[in-house]
Amino acid sequence: MSTFIFMLTPETATAIGERMLTELSSRFPEHEFEFAESEMDDLENAISPILDDEDRPGCYTCPEDSEVERVQEAFGRLLADSIEWKAS
Question: What is the pTM of this model?
Fold first, then answer.
């Protein structure tokens, strides 16, 4: 199982953080998701895999590039939909 962490602006995290966590977890039950607030522009509203294998300390695993891309695309769509939903 891979773990992904997504970083949201503080305002976005407050408004939709839990909703994003629920949506991603239901769409990708084979992965775990965590989120945090970020005040660093290059990390805001982004998602990445965490490269750590708790079962084998010192060993790192990463999902296939295509899987990372699938998760990132879904995250982007959910974020865009949430921003549109919030704005209306």
Answer: 0.76
The amino acid occupying position 27 is: R
pLDDT reported for residue 55: 67
Following DSSP, what letter does each residue of 26-63 receive, concatenated? HH-TTEEEEEEE---GGGTTEEEEE---TTSTT-----
Range of the domain at 38: 2-87
What is the domain count for the chain?
1
Q: Is 6 exposed, middle or buried (0-12, 13-18, 19+ CB in 10 A)?
A: buried
**Which amino acid is residue 7, in one-letter code?**
M
Consecutive 10-residue runs of the chain (88 residues): their mean pLDDT? 82 84 94 82 79 62 86 92 60
